[in-house]
Amino acid sequence: MNKRNKIFFLAALLCVFGLGVALKVSAQESTVSFTVRSGSQVGFDAPLSIIEVVTPGEQDIIIQATDSGTGEAVEKVVSPNSVFGFLARADKASSDLTLSAIQYFAYFDSLFLKCAVVGTEEGCDNWQYVVDNVYPSVGMDAFELEGGEQVYVYFGSPHQLVLPKDTLGAGDSFEIAAQDYQYESNQWSILSGVTIGILRENPDDPWNPIELKTQAVDVLGKSVFEGLEAGTYLVGIKEDFYFPPVQLAVEPAPSSGSGGGGGGTLIYPKNLDVEKAVAFLLSFQEEDGSILSPFHSDWAALALAVFPGEEEAKATLSLYLSRDVSPGTLATDYERRAMALMALGINPYGESGTNYIQNILDSFDGEQIGSPDLVNDDIFGLLVLLKAGVEGAAIDKTTSFILSAQEPNGSWGGVDMTAAAVQALSLVSSFEGVPTALGNARLFLTSKQEEQTGGFENAYSTSWAMQAIAALGESQENWRKNGKTPGDFLFFLQASDGGLMEGDTAANRVWATSYAVPGALQKPWGEILSEFENPGGVSQEPIAASRQESSGQQEVLEEIQQKLNVIEEKVAVLELKVSLVYAEYQLAQKQSQIALLGDNAFFAEGQESNAFEGAAFQELSGEQGNEQDRFAAQASSASDTFFESGIGRILLIAGAGIVLFFLLGGWRRMRLFSRQRSLAAQEQQSYASKSS
């Protein structure tokens, strides 16, 4: 494809794309995404159109309000495209939304949404609105929308403070967490970058309380205070002008028979509520016993197995897994399913219909399990095979492979896989090199524990690290950073519904919560999985032979592909040669025509032209010689696909012939040939006249 065609093709594509984008943007800008909610209840959630106002005031909406000063009923008009106008239109369109009380403040000449009913609940005096994630500084009746915005009107405060659950005593240290409201999902998240203050009421000015202590929050939105005397205090966020404040009561310290003492005890939550976490998981259990998916069901089985109770739920999940629902086809899929079965007491040698131990051994190549480029399939494989009573080469070689994959910093890539390796290798601690590897892994995990949170990177890694700590025979109480343990981090991530990572997808929350339960109970996989005897009959024969056969087949396929590539290159070169032969043919034909003329002047002109033709031909040959280099780049373009087809190539050759024709002086030769035919005709006519 020449440069002109490429430009034309790209221009056409850009025109079509630009038109589509313009139409889409135009459609988006003519509407506003408008949502009204109060907690979990949504009164309105749909796009509303911008109303085109031709004559000012013609489309205004009349609002029935109450004067805040006199208490009298008043009528006020608002623009249909103001936030209040949209709110009134949403009220009219939805049966789940009623604006029950609206006040008018004459001093500000502004309307105030006092009360509204969303669903079955009425909320008063604390309505907020947000436009494109920004809280405007003007009233809803003064903010004009232009189209394309996303607007949320919600009841409640944008921020909140979470106080300690335990009763505070005088002199105790305690923690307060600041949280930010996520109006899209009705969830609370970490609020950082603010300062929390401890206050006392000001008898002279109730709107300006007295500051006693202030403390900036950490990355988890938490501040630590201590040394308060018995009494009642107010707590608030300074950036919110301490509104609304939260009341805090501090009781007198208990009297002690012995003197001395000094300082209070830091009050940190010790761990997440495991019972609530399990209840959260079971809220997703289906009638067939599954929890979200086969993948999530496997991990949830490990959480339920370690939890005392919920026997009926365990039984239904066991029945589901016993139906041999496919876990996948990778070695790690077989290993995960075997772990789930063994945790629930189901024999992995075939009680569910599939011998997962044999499947794992089938992927053992004599040196390691599964992919030689991965170590996770070896770590989980070793764990399962050990608990399944397998001995011999599969255990020894896989252990050696895992040890060889440990990095100089003591890790196996990251916190999570290092924690998994610790749990597996702790079961073969007598194997040469394992004690040293475990010691190096511990040092790595220690270096990765975060000062601010006490956790490890995220909920998933923290849970596995807590299991690794237990596998090392240690308690998380010995793993404190800045007074916080990994369990404190999990506790912070637990929401009121019992699940972790509030605001995330249900799939991720179930996944993270399934990990957290064994971690919180400090139970490594080696303790969760039941042991099973090897019944014999399982083969540990490496799959090297089959891999060699597969490798041989792969080599044959690669050889065939190489030959195809050579053929394609030869076809491309042949096409170029055809073009060159065609050009030579045209040149020879034109030279023959010139020779027939016999006119010295024309012949001299032809020689001069031939010199130009020769130069042009050499230039064309040089360009065509480079065409093979450009072929690969052009083949990747969608626009070149047409020109690589049969019809496209014909048109390309025809076009090249036309260009070549004019480039070599074809138009001049046509005129010359026409003149020759004319002269010949005149001579014949003259000869005929003389003869007659």
Which terms summarize this structure?
Immunoglobulin-like, 18 strands, single chain, 692 residues, five-stranded mixed sheet, disordered C terminus, Glycosyltransferase, Ferric Hydroxamate Uptake Protein, Chain A, domain 1, alpha+beta, 4 domains
How would you summarize what this structure contains?
This protein has 692 residues and is an alpha+beta fold. 46% of the residues lie in helices and 16% in strands.
Q: Could you describe the 3D structure shown?
A:
There is one protein chain. 46% of the residues lie in helices and 16% in strands. With 692 residues, the chain is an alpha+beta fold. The chain has 4 domains: 27-155, Ferric Hydroxamate Uptake Protein, Chain A, domain 1 (Beta Complex), CATH 2.170.130; 159-251, Sandwich (Immunoglobulin-like); 274-536, Glycosyltransferase; 572-689, no CATH class. The protein has a 5-stranded mixed beta sheet with strand order 4-3-5-6-7, covered by helices on one side. Strands 11-18-17-14-15 form a 5-stranded mixed beta sheet, with no helix packed on it. The protein has a 4-stranded mixed beta sheet with strand order 2-1-9-8. Strand 6 (110-118) and strand 7 (121-124) form a beta hairpin. InterPro entries: Terpenoid_cyclase/PrenylTrfase. This is Squalene cyclase C-terminal domain-containing protein.
